[in-house]
Amino acid sequence: MDFVSPVLDALACLYACTAKHAANIFHLRQDLEFLRDKMLELKDLSEDVKARVELAEQQNMTVRVEVLNWLSKINFEEVRVEQILQQGDLEVEKKCLGSCCPKNFWSSFKLGKKVSGNTITIVNLLGVGRNFDSVAYRAPRVRVDEMPIGHTVGFDWLYKNVCSCLTEDKVGIIGLYGTGGVGKTTLMKKINNEFLKMKHQFGVVIWVSMSNQASVRTAQEVIRNKLQIPDSMWQGRTEDERAREIFNIMKTKRFVLLLDDVWQRLDLSEIGVPPLPLLDDQNKSKVIITTRFMRICSDMEVQATFKVNCLTREEALALFLKKVGEDTLSSHPDIPNLAEAMTERCQGLPLALVTVGRAMAHRNTPQEWEQAIQELEKNPSEISGVENQLFDVLKLSYDSIRDDITKSCFLYLSVFPKEYEVRNDELIEHWIGEGFFDGKDIYEARRRGHKIIEYLKNACLLEAGDGFKECIKMHDVIRDMALWIAQECGNRMNKTLVCESLGFVDTGRVTSWKEAERISLWGRNIEKLPETPQCSNLQTLFVRECTELKTFPSGFFQFMPLIKVLNLSATHRLTEFPAGIERLINLEYLNLSMTCIKQLPTEIMNLAKLRCLLLDSMHSLIIPPNLISSLSWLQLFSMYDGNALSTYRQALLGELESIELLDELSLSFRSVEALNRLLSSYKLQRCMRRLSLNDCRKLFCLELSSLSLSYLETLCLFNCLQLEDVRVNIERAYDIPNPELILRNKQYFARLRDVKIWSCPKLQNLTWLVHATGLESLSIQSCESMKEVINHDYGASTSEHVRVFTRLTTIVLGGMPLLESIYQGTLLFPALEVMCVINCPKLGRLPFDANSAAKTLKKIEGDVNWWYGLQWEHETIEQTFFKYFSPQYLADAIHVSDDMGQRELSAFTQTFDVIAKKKKMEKGSASRSGT
Q1: DSSP state, 570?
Q2: Are residues 665 and 657 in contact, defined by beta-carbon separation less than 8 angstroms?
Q3: Where are the beta strands (DSSP E) in 596-680?
């Protein structure tokens, strides 16, 4: 029976094989349905995977190769399975009628085998797809991401300076600040892209756009993406934990972090940025910030700060012409000149140049350009793009202003003409008159006003004036934006009206005055005003520098019931007090300075709310008795520079003294008797801000109170021919708050900023100025007997620098033939910018050493003979200061007497020029002979 077993095994194997093949034939319908179901599952799974892949690609991730291969196989299998399913459905339909047997066993067998094989493949693909933990991974990021940037103009000098800071070990944080639209971001992009071109040692360059809504978390997210910190180390973490993750990576790298458009102080440690430079000084990483606010640079402890200024005239024109396009420029020969005129109006602000340049592209007729120039001058918001592309961008700076009062102060500057430089004090006085600082005394209001001016300058919304240091100005485009905001973003164009050089004010223009709250009329061409304008909403009226205007119509002020501020200053031909002003019962500020009004009417007593009255440079003004004392709300009174108080006007001092609320005075005196009346009144001295003594011929010695005049800011002594000495009278103080602080530090005149002493021929020295610790400007001229400014005995006991003139920025010495010394020792002059010495031949030494004015000096002006005759302690000191010497005539440095004509003055300047040329030739000759 041994042969039976193998036979049975063979039969069993044959049966299994036959059964399997039979299953492929007889279970074909069920197998097809199973394959169809699995294929649908695979399609659904592939769609999910494709969605994950698409999301990863959007995040700049790299898709895994195995995922791509899997998706490729599915596409192939989908086609093949579809064919098999179609073939199978046909095969099932061919079965014998009423039977489960196929007509063709061999064909069904082969089809069933395909179904079985593809089912196994599909099931395997499902298993693989369901096990994809991730479909992509983050590829290593490039060190620098290129930033899109268009054509750039300018910035070459600034760009080089910033790049040089990138190689300086001691500079960790670099700050770029400037007004909106000036090109800070463009410059930053240029710096960023330069890292793609040059060789450098930085491991990564990270760009973060902050904007005014950005936060620490925003910056962290951008840095995280650049550093490719995985989700497992990021999601669900606090800001502090995320900062630690960033810190642990960045401390191992040498990086450049570019923070663009920073609006508030960022604590870099809160983001996770390591301190710069690191203690071991090996990392040498850099942070560069751009901001509209200069204070942000100091708040973030920037080591190198650069202001991004507007483009030069040539750069601005090049940028503007680029945006206009050659086709437009060549369309008419007049257009290039008109384009240059329009460029001037944009004042070098790149955003304005680009916006207006684009708007002018394809305007091919001179008439269109002329019309656009008029629009840009009168109503720039009507030009295409100016409102939404320019003003809206600049307005972000206004929106960021911290409080409504500061916003009001900023918008107030729009009532001044374009390119007008306004004195800080004048501007603040208007703010006071408008009631912006209600509830504060004048001194506190001025302090607040100066603080606001500095804030606006730091925000690059104001600029320092080109002329006097105490002046500010507003960029033309910023001023246009401010006027647009004051007119409620163009919705109330007549709310604030600024009119320059109108000639006759026509009826049509007066109609718009009905809606106006502020009207500003300027210019010599304004000759006539309307009779009875309807101005029921008017609160502020300027009629200034209208040199052709002689009179106001009698009914001009009749319908201005709300007016609070009235400024008629510098309307020189105005001789009569305008009728109707006395009925402006809400008036709080009245400025008649530099007019020729002869007398104030007694009806001014009706101005019960008047707080500020300015009557400067009104040489012949008559003030009726008891008028000033009736103004019980008066806080500021100024009658300075011209209408000096003589012996016969002493009664006015008594009236001023009787006003309880009076805080501030500016007065000029012409008699010793009137001056003594002032010096006998503690209240009047306490209020004195500006004091001028003119032609006080009987004044032999001036004694200044050490305590009572503690608020004095300006002192002028003119033509006091008998004055021999100025002394500080050290008094005991009984009713002064904290007098011991003043006495202990001997800072008796801490507020004194400006001193002018001219034509006092017997004055010996000004040693008392050592007490004026805040002095910024000193001008001494035509004091023929003066031998020294500060007496040689002062500070003789110390070998150290004496702390005198530590805040002095300008000193002018002229027409003093005996002057030998400013000070016997050396002075630091840590703030000195300009020194001018004219006609002081015996001044043979300057109180300078190598450290004097080391960081601030800009210019030393004087006679060439005098300069080459100076003695120096060391040759190196002479070489240090030689580069600052400018042999030029300075008008303010020479006292021009009334009897000196233009011929003598011209002869003097010509002589000076001849001497300068001669000295230059002598120096060249000596140099040649030496070689």
Answers
A1: T
A2: no
A3: 612-614, 636-639, 664-669
807 burial level (CB within 10 Å; 0-12, 13-18, 19+): middle
CA dist., res. 45 & res. 296, Å (int): 53
Per-residue model confidence (pLDDT) at position 11 = 42
CA distances from 287 to 205, 256, 260, 506, 873 (A): 10, 6, 11, 58, 44
Residue 213 burial by Cβ neighbours in a 10 Å radius (0-12, 13-18, 19+): exposed
**Highest averaged pLDDT of the listed ranges 90-104, 585-599, 643-657, 888-902:** 585-599
577 neighbors 553 (Cβ within 8 angstroms): no
Tokens 């509209």 belong to: 292
**Can you tell me the distance from the alpha carbon of 259 to that of 188, in angstroms, rounded to the nearest whole number?**
9
pLDDT, tens digit (0-9, with 9 covering 90-100), for 382-436: 888 888 888 888 999 999 998 999 999 999 999 998 888 999 999 999 999 999 9
| Residue whose C-alpha is closest to residue 548's, from 578, 570, 530, 525 | 525
Q: Examine residue 277 and say whether the peptide bond preceding it is cis (omega within 30 degrees of 0).
A: yes
Q: Degrees (nearest 5) of the Cα angle 244, 246, 251?
A: 95
924 vs 931: CA distance, rounded Å: 11
| Residue 494 burial (C-beta neighbours within 10 Å; 0-12, 13-18, 19+) | middle
Closest CA to 356 of 386, 378, 377: 386
Integer angstrom CA distances of residue 196 from 134, 143, 171, 200, 253: 32, 9, 22, 9, 18
What's the alpha-carbon Rg for the chain, to the nearest Å? 42
Contact (CB, 8 A) for 417 and 406: no
Confidence of residue 920 (pLDDT cuts 50, 70, 90): very low
From the centroid of its chain, how far is CA 718? 39
* pLDDT grade for 465, boundaries at 50, 70 and 90: confident
Q: What is the pTM of this model?
A: 0.78
DSSP 8-state code for residue 388: I
Instruction: Report d(CA 831, CA 808) in Å as an integer.
Output: 6
For residues 666 and 446, give the distance between their C-alpha atoms in angstroms, rounded to a whole number: 15
How far is residue 750's CA from residue 772's CA, in Å, rounded to a whole number? 6
Q: List, in sequence order, every residue forming a beta bridge with 543; answer none if it has no partner.
A: 521
CA distance 532 to 461: 37
In one-letter notation, the amino acid at residue 758 is: W
Cα separation, 471 vs 416, whole angstroms: 13
Across the beta sheet with 255-262, the strand order is: 204-209, 255-262, 286-291, 173-177, 304-307
